[in-house]
Amino acid sequence: MLTVSTVNVNGLRAASKKGYLEWLSATAADVVCLQETRAEPDQLPPAVREPEGWHLLLAPSATKGRSGVAVLSRTEPSASRIGFGSEEFDDSGRYAEVELPGLVVASLYLPSGDVGTERQDEKERFMAEFLPYLAALRERAEAEGKDVAVCGDWNIAHREIDLKNWKANQKSAGFLPEEREWMSRVFDELGYVDVFRQQNPDGPGPYSWWSYRGKAFDNDSGWRIDYQAVTSGLAERAVDAVVERAPSYDKRWSDHAPVTVTFDRS
């Protein structure tokens, strides 16, 4: 079996003090994608920077304390890449990928946006640049006989069943019609599969992010914004997909929960 997990850690240094390392040591995952690491390598303790049994690719943001993505793999990658050929975004800590036997795995942290601000403009520019790269990545991998899994915090809830209070959020960043249409293009035009939803077709939920404010976690008032977008051949081999939701608020080590998918390697 091949198990891939993705989680926004909301600060790798903070998460490592609250349960991330214990989770990593216990996970059955072969590959783990992290987002919002917010750390330079020299800021991380050895157990986080060089976890036993893992190969770590860390892509920090040029703006210190912001963004950052990482990929951990039990198998040493044959190649790796930071960024996707964007002059604006390649040093922003938002994309990194590794090549493994028969598989390309990428960690993505798409900008969150904020309606009516420059942050939303930035998100839209990122989406416009990233879409053709996703298409080219799939084509390149297919030519090499490889599958692709683009995992991470996409900061978009695709459908109404992907967030609790969808009616109240129709004009909010993360659930705007144009953002949802962009996600549909990823799945419909580009041929990627929302493998978690394939395995869990009924909603609402389960969700992968809950605000720290109020009683969002206790009331399960969340959003599903963490995805594994995989090529069709890999999706056909999926056997299980779960959100590793913490048992209680005080057991959380991030405001996101790991999304873990298991595939048959054959």
From TrEMBL:
InterPro entries: AP_endonuc_1, Endo/exonu/phosph_ase_sf, Endo/exonuclease/phosphatase, ExoIII-like. The record marks N155 as: Transition state stabilizer. Its cofactor is Mg(2+); Mn(2+). Mg(2+) binds at N8, E36, D153, N155, D255, H256. The keyword Cell membrane does not apply. The record marks H256 as: Interaction with DNA substrate. The keyword Secreted does not apply. GO terms for biological process: DNA repair. Keywords: Hydrolase, Magnesium, Manganese, Metal-binding. The record marks D226 as: Important for catalytic activity. Residues 6-256 form the Endonuclease/exonuclease/phosphatase domain. The active site is at Y109, D153, H256. GO terms for molecular function: double-stranded DNA 3'-5' DNA exonuclease activity; metal ion binding. Probably binds two magnesium or manganese ions per subunit. Its EC number is 3.1.11.2. Belongs to the DNA repair enzymes AP/ExoA family. This is Exodeoxyribonuclease III.
